[in-house]
Automatic annotation (TrEMBL):
Annotated protein name in UniProt: dTDP-4-dehydro-6-deoxyglucose aminotransferase
Cited InterPro entries: DegT/StrS_aminotransferase (IPR000653), PLP_DesI (IPR030967), PyrdxlP-dep_Trfase (IPR015424), PyrdxlP-dep_Trfase_major (IPR015421), PyrdxlP-dep_Trfase_small (IPR015422)
Species of provenance: Streptomyces pimonensis
Gene Ontology MF term list: transaminase activity
NCBIfam families: PLP_DesI
Keywords tagged on the record: Aminotransferase, Pyridoxal phosphate, Transferase
Family to which this protein belongs: Belongs to the DegT/DnrJ/EryC1 family.
Lineage: Bacteria, Bacillati, Actinomycetota, Actinomycetes, Kitasatosporales
Top-rank taxon, per record: Bacteria
Pfam families the UniProt entry points to: DegT_DnrJ_EryC1
Position of the signal peptide: none
Keyword Oxidoreductase appears in the UniProt entry: no
Length: 397
């Protein structure tokens, strides 16, 4: 146990290994594109590379329209504004803060509903129950890239005449029942943040088959210029620059290699941790396409003797920078906690148990074995690690 860096042992990693380390790209190709942008002297405002990216993303999503944006948070806001939502948006709480904040920032009230206790996916029955007179839309989240129960959500939305949107920030390149994510509901939003499987430094996209909605998003992301009717929102600047588009295109070129690497990482983690009591890697449906961007482990403290938060401390002391994605869940964050307190037992339990492990193209098989060795060691002395840590924190050691 004393080998753990938490207790003074040498760290397993000299340098931090991260959850969201940017995927590898072909630098020569990226610099070629950037040089081309500089030569072309068109740096933003719907430049040729942003348009090329939109075509490629629309094709991946299997939809007619894609509007590239400066990030996914803005893309969600643009989508809500384009759909002229007012009132409440029903969504899961088990997500990154951006999902809720995007709505709140433009004056919409998130209404949080509970998730399936195993998959973390928003419960369609809970959504139906949450619908009220102020409901304006339903927003599903393809959490950790695992698609929602799309058909059930589509049915609830249709039964109540509400638009259904998806926050697909984690799910670029994934499928549900063989169909590409991006084509579900009225519209979906991808993130191309630095930490995502396709990265534009910062970037996002709205994808949809609704031509009119797409045209409104496009106008709104460019100050409302070209809007044929008057939008109460006016417009904003949500455009993607050519530098970001150059990065995103180069990252897309590497997409298959990135996913192959992530998939191998995921399977190695699953194998290595299979015999560690109380730790389970949340699986993916093998019949679907997945980007394997996140490796999520659920911690059952009654079996490990060590809780999720302390395991993260143990890993971080080793320079393995695990993250508690997503804890606290949105309903326990301000301003929601104070504005509209709610209890979501499945969400709370899952959020308190899960952690994301380092992965991505810069994380090697050797790195993964080291992370798993640390986890194995920490769990084999789980109760002792907990006792010793509590004593240290209490200043008694
Ligand atoms: N909806 C959902 C469900 C989302 O998860 C997100 C964002 C959004 C919407 C909104 O998308 P964007 O508006 O961002 O396009 C990170 C990302 O900033 C965020 O984009 C992402 N989700 C979220 C899940 O992760 P943090 O606060 O965890 O970031 P940070 O700085 O702690 O970085 C995460 C890890 O990545 C660290 O271990 C360090 C590593 N990293 C990070 C950056 C920026 C690198 O190795 N290199 C880097 O350049 O939010």
């Amino acid at each position: 146990m004393s080998d753990l860096a938490l207790f003074g042992g040498r760290s397993a990693f000299l340098h931090p290994v991260h959850v969201g380390c940017p995927s590898r790209v072909d630098r020569a190709r990226l610099f070629d594109r950037l040089n081309w942008v500089l030569d072309n002297q068109w740096l933003t405002n719907g430049g040729p590379l942003a348009l090329e990216l939109e075509d490629r993303v629309a094709e991946i999503a299997g939809v007619r329209n894609c509007v590239a944006t400066c990030n996914a948070t803005t893309a969600l806001q643009l989508l809500f504004q384009a759909a002229e939502l007012t009132g409440e948006v029903i969504m899961p709480s088990l997500s990154f803060a951006a999902t809720a904040h995007a709505a709140r920032w433009i004056g919409l009230d998130p209404v949080f509903v509970d998730v399936d206790p195993l998959t973390g996916s928003m419960e369609p029955a809970a959504v139906a129950k949450a619908i009220g007179p102020r409901s304006a839309a339903i927003l599903g989240v393809h959490l950790w890239g695992r698609p929602c129960q799309v058909d059930d959500l589509e049915k609830v939305a249709a039964d109540h005449g509400l638009p259904l949107f998806f926050d697909a920030a984690h799910a670029t390149g994934c499928t549900w029942r063989g169909r590409a994510v991006g084509g579900f509901g009225t519209a979906e939003v991808f993130s191309f943040h630095a930490t995502k499987v396709v990265n534009a430094f910062e970037g996002g996209a709205v994808v949809t088959d609704d031509d009119e909605l797409a045209q409104r998003v496009r106008a709104l992301h460019n100050f409302g210029i070209g809007l044929s009717d008057s939008s109460p929102a006016g417009g904003t600047n949500g455009k993607m620059s050519e530098a970001s588009a150059a990065m995103a295109l180069t990252s897309l070129d590497a997409f298959e290699d990135t996913v192959r690497h992530n998939r191998a990482n995921f399977h190695l983690y699953s194998e290595e941790l299979a015999d560690v009591p109380g730790l389970s890697v949340i699986p993916h449906d093998r019949d679907e396409r997945h980007n394997y961007q996140y490796v999520i482990v659920a911690v059952e403290e009654s079996a490990t003797g060590i809780g999720r938060d302390l395991l993260i401390e143990v890993l971080r002391a080793e320079n393995a920078m695990a993250k508690p994605y997503f804890s606290p869940p949105c309903h326990q964050l301000e301003p929601y906690r104070s504005r509209a307190p709610v209890e979501l037992p499945h969400t709370e339990r899952l959020a308190a148990r899960v952690l994301a492990l380092p992965t991505g193209t810069s994380v090697s098989r050797e790195d993964i074995r080291r992370v798993c060795n640390v986890l194995r060691l920490a769990v084999s002395y789980g109760a002792d690690v907990t006792t010793r840590w509590n004593r240290m924190k209490g200043g008694r050691e």
